[in-house]
TrEMBL record:
GO CC terms in record: periplasmic space
This protein's encoding gene: tauA
Location of the protein in the cell: Periplasm
The protein's name in its UniProt record: Taurine ABC transporter substrate-binding protein
Domain Solute-binding protein family 3/N-terminal: 27-244
Gene Ontology BP term (one): alkanesulfonate transmembrane transport
NCBIfam families on file: taurine_ABC_bnd
Pfam families hit by this protein: NMT1 (PF09084)
Keywords tagged on the record: Signal
Similarity comment: Belongs to the bacterial solute-binding protein SsuA/TauA family.
Organism: Chitiniphilus eburneus
Key word Phosphoprotein present: no
SUPFAM superfamilies reported in the protein's UniProt record: Periplasmic binding protein-like II
Secretion signal, residue range per the UniProt entry: 1-25
Length: 329
């Protein structure tokens, strides 16, 4: 049994136990990833702690699958995940809710092919080794792209690697291509070219997004903390939306984002424009039928690919606009 299969079975069993963990707002563990986005400035500034009065333990993770595992264990109460691992977790009945859309993914995630690997067009991927973090948004996008190109995934060598492992494998010349996000994406671009980005895949009918999720037991006991978290995040998005160029040109913002994410300062401005960050009023609308449908469609795709065993009758209970609405007040 593979590591992925063991993790899947463990997550399913744990989710079904309904285990509750005693966590207080004064001691909150939050899982974040290296995605470049405006709220990383608020994170670096300690704005979440100031707004909530809570002591926050920020933990960096390399993939949504790892975040989901930590949330399932109770070690993490709030986490940043992509739509694919989120859909997989919901399909396995993990007690979570999506309370913010962190980013609608575009060119910030892409399939890069190595220079000299002999890949000039999609058909050339046959027989090549492509690295991707399994059950991630990039994994979902890769499979959707292959389906669009009518390429049987079994004809491609798809290997499961974390972003840092992708960078190491790329530098060794062990892989021909990778579908990933920054900073690994930027490193691959240094001697590779983008074959397709998630902007294109979204146009083909398979959009992806990043989201903030919360354990239901934590949210029920600490609704004010979740509301304050939403307010701080959405204020950062509003600050960026008011003048994106000025936000990205401010040296302090760039330094903070680069420090938190590990990206190169000179790449930050371009990476910020690679995604879209919905504001509070749009969040309240998105976190209803649109996100429920996205989770439903993504879960159905994952089931077709054999990544989840069963589907929920409805995914509505895994989405809540309560906290986005509170941010509007």
């Amino acid at each position: 049994m593979s590591t992925l299969d063991r993790t899947t079975r463990w997550l399913s069993a744990l989710a079904l136990t309904g285990t509750a963990f005693a966590v207080h707002a004064a001691d909150v563990t939050i899982a974040y990833q290296t995605t470049v986005e405006p709220a990383k400035v608020a994170q670096a500034d300690g704005a979440y702690e100031k707004a909530s009065g809570a002591k926050i333990d920020w933990r960096k993770f390399e993939s949504g699958a790892e975040v989901i595992t930590a949330v399932a264990s109770g070690d993490v109460q709030i986490g940043y995940v992509g739509s694919s691992p989120l859909a997989a977790a919901a399909s396995r009945s993990l007690p979570i809710q999506t309370f913010l859309i962190a980013a609608q993914i575009g060119s910030a995630e892409a399939l890069v092919v190595r220079n000299g690997a002999g890949i000039a067009k999609p058909a050339d991927l046959a027989g090549k080794k492509i690295a991707v973090p399994f059950v991630s948004t990039t994994h979902y996008s890769l499979l959707a792209a292959l389906k669009h190109w009518k390429i049987d995934p079994s004809k491609v060598q798809i290997v499961n690697l974390r972003p840092s492992e992708i960078t190491a494998a790329w530098q060794r010349g062990d892989i021909d291509a990778a579908y990933v996000w920054d900073p690994a994406l930027g490193k691959a671009k240094e001697n590779g070219k983008v074959l397709v980005s998630s902007t294109d895949v979204a146009k083909w009918g398979a959009p992806t997004f990043d989201a903030w999720i919360v354990r239901k037991d934590f949210a029920e006991k600490n609704p004010r903390f979740v509301e304050q978290f939403a307010r701080v995040t959405l204020k950062a998005y509003a600050d960026y939306a008011a003048n994106p160029k000025a936000f990205a040109a401010k040296a302090a913002n760039v330094e903070k984002i680069a420090r938190v994410t590990g990206s190169k300062p000179e790449e930050v401005a371009g990476l910020l424009t690679g995604n879209r960050y919905p504001l509070a009023d749009e969040q309240a609308r998105l976190l209803a039928d649109a996100t429920t449908k996205a989770l439903t469609d993504t879960s159905a795709f994952l089931k077709d690919q054999g990544k989840v065993d069963a589907l929920q009758p409805s995914y509505a209970s895994y989405v809540s606009n309560r906290y986005a609405k509170a941010a509007l007040k």
